[in-house]
Amino acid sequence: MDAKVQHLSILTQKYEHELALFKRHKFAQKNEHLTTKQIHLWDEAVEEDIAAVDLELERLNADKTDAATQKAKTNKPKRRPLPDHLHTIRIEHEPASTQCACGCQLRRIGEDVSEKLHFRPAQFYKNSMCVVNGSVISVTP
Asked: Which residues contact 18 (CB under 8 A, 6 or more apart)?
C-alpha cells in the first residue's frame, strides 16, 4: 500500500511539473515559446501519460469491483424466506410516546420486520417482530 501511495505521489509531482511548464508556455513572453516540433513532442508525451493513468485506474477499479463482488457473495443470506402459509403471530413494539419533544404528533413512516421460525409440538408458526419507525408530521408555530 505504501508503494502505491509513493507511486501516486510521484505521478502527482510529475503532473504538477508538466502543468507548470504548460502555464509557462501559455503565459510566457513571445521569445520563450516552444517551437511546433517541441509542442508536438510534448503532446505525444502527455497522451502517453494520460493513457497510462487511465490503464492504472481501470486496473484499480477492476480490483475494487472484484472485491465488492466477492464480498456480496459472502454476505448473501443462506436461508430462504419463511413460507406464507404458516400461522403468523405479529408482535408490534410501538414507541412509548407518539409525541415529539416539541409537542408535534409523530406519524408512522416505516417498520423493521424480523421473522423467526418457532415450533410447538405438532405445530409450526412464525413470530413477526415489528419495530415502528416514526417522524414528525409537521411543525407549526
From this structure: 46, 49
Round to whole Å and give the CA distance between 92 and 96: 12
CA distance 113 to 85: 18
Residue 138, pLDDT above cutoff 60: no
What does the chain look like in DSSP terms, one character per residue? -HHHHHHHHHHHHHHHHHHHHHHHHHHS-GGGPPPHHHHHHHHHHHHHHHHHHHHHHHHHHHHHHHHHHHHHHHTS-SSPPPPTTSEEEEEEE--S-SB-TTSPBEEEEEEEEEEEEEEETTEEEEEEEEEEEEEE-----
Which pLDDT score is estimated for 140? 38
Query: What does pLDDT average to over the chain?
Result: 77
pLDDT of residue 136: 47
- pTM for this entry: 0.33
pLDDT reported for residue 30: 62
